[in-house]
């Protein structure tokens, strides 16, 4: 099969691009075969600007994107254990390559305060906007950030709705109005498609996880539209065994199901679907329970999810996989160098982010993918909790 569709793609490359309408970017969208937009950098790739090496017409849902669950829950020293989900700050996460963030706002006194459930995270929406603006109008101007914006915890002491307060931040509030004008991506129509990379460079694509009833304009895309976004976010675990068995199976099965689906469409000899109409895949690795705080689930040395997923993805790259790990053979075949979608981590570190990003550059000539997943001395925040 792989052999067959490779020859087909070679054939396509020799057709004039007009033969490929209505999907003129078809032959480039499957990034295994895409020429990079800019020359490849000296290694290792700088994770602040990894999207700068991709073609402008890349549909965002065909990429492998590192993301963080509960992005702002990182002030480790001041938060209870069950609340903390990250070690790196938002700034650090962005520079490590994270391009999907999970921003949870409690609507309180007509403003947005950052919350994880009942716990106030000590910061507000203005801070998030400021950090994104500094990144996307500065070093990260080639990048796109997907932002899930979630209405979290019960609203209190407000005189308006969540969406009205959001529009106040966008149109009125003097601390944010100019920054948000630079930053936000507005869809030009009601197709509810994710933009192409080139349409949203330097911008934030809001994924609306709140009630947008009464909004005066269309902003970003709905997070809960199942046709557009496929999500695995089962986080309620009960025992350690649940982590090993249940959560792990959910993660792997989600990839198996959707990666096959994706590739059956992207590789079909007569493409019937515009790749932009395929869903965005969002696979949450996070989980927790009363006796099993997020840090344990993610980083426990023996059975933590992060080690397993990293090991799994690393091994998926390697050629000796079938001899070494016969039991995982099938999964590896399906995952090799394919679209992972958004991979949403608790306690992400630079190595994990780099590993996910590396899936976008597999097969690009001149790029030695085996180096991509490793820690490098240039990156100063490598968490010691797990490898
Ligand atoms: C956000 O937090 C900053 C710093 O604590 C504060 O000065 C500002 O007033 C807050 N903004 C809003 C809209 O609550
Ligand atoms: C990566 O690129 C950014 C933006 O150009 C730059 O500020 C940063 O120092 C670079 N990082 C490394 C490790 O070279």
Automatic annotation (TrEMBL):
Residues 1-19 form the signal peptide. One of its GO terms (biological process) is lipid metabolic process. Residues 56-209 form the Phosphatidylinositol-specific phospholipase C X domain. GO terms for molecular function: phosphoric diester hydrolase activity. Keywords: Signal. It comes from the Eukaryota. Pfam families: PI-PLC-X. This is PLC-like phosphodiesterase. It comes from Morchella conica CCBAS932.
């Amino acid at each position: 099969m792989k052999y067959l569709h490779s020859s087909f793609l070679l054939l396509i490359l020799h057709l004039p691009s007009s033969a490929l309408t209505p999907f003129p970017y078809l032959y480039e969208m499957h990034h295994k075969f895409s020429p990079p937009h800019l020359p490849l950098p000296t290694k290792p790739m700088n994770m602040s600007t990894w999207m700068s090496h991709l073609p402008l017409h890349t549909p965002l849902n065909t990429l492998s994107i590192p993301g963080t669950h509960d992005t702002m829950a990182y002030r480790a020293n001041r938060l209870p254990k069950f609340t903390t989900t990250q070690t790196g700050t938002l700034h650090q996460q962005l520079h490590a390559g994270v391009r999907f963030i999970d921003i949870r706002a409690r609507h309180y006194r007509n403003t947005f305060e950052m919350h994880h459930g009942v716990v106030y995270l000590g910061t507000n929406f203005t801070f998030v906007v400021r950090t994104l603006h500094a990144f996307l109008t500065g070093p990260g101007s080639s990048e796109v950030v997907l932002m899930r914006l979630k209405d979290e915890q019960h609203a209190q002491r407000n005189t308006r709705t969540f969406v009205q307060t959001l529009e106040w931040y966008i149109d009125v509030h003097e601390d944010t109005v100019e920054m948000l004008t630079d930053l936000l991506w507005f869809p030009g129509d009601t197709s509810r498609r994710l933009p192409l990379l080139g349409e949203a460079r330097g911008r934030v694509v809001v994924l609306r996880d709140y009630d947008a009833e009464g909004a005066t304009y269309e902003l970003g895309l709905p997070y809960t539209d199942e046709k557009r976004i496929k999500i695995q976010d089962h986080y309620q675990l009960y025992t350690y065994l649940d982590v090993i068995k249940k959560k792990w199976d959910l993660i792997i099965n989600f990839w198996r199901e959707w990666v096959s689906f994706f590739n059956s469409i992207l590789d079909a000899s007569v493409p019937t679907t515009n790749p932009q109409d395929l869903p965005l895949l969002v696979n949450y690795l996070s989980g927790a329970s009363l006796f099993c705080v997020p840090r344990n689930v993610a980083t426990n040395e023996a059975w933590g999810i992060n080690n397993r997923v990293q090991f799994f993805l690393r091994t998926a790259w390697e050629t000796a996989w079938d001899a070494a790990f016969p039991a995982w053979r099938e999964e590896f075949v399906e995952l090799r160098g394919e679209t992972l979608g958004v991979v949403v981590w608790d306690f992400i570190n630079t190595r994990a982010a780099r590993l996910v990003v590396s899936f976008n550059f597999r097969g690009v000539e001149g790029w030695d993918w085996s180096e991509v997943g490793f820690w490098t001395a240039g990156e100063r925040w490598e968490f010691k909790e797990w490898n």
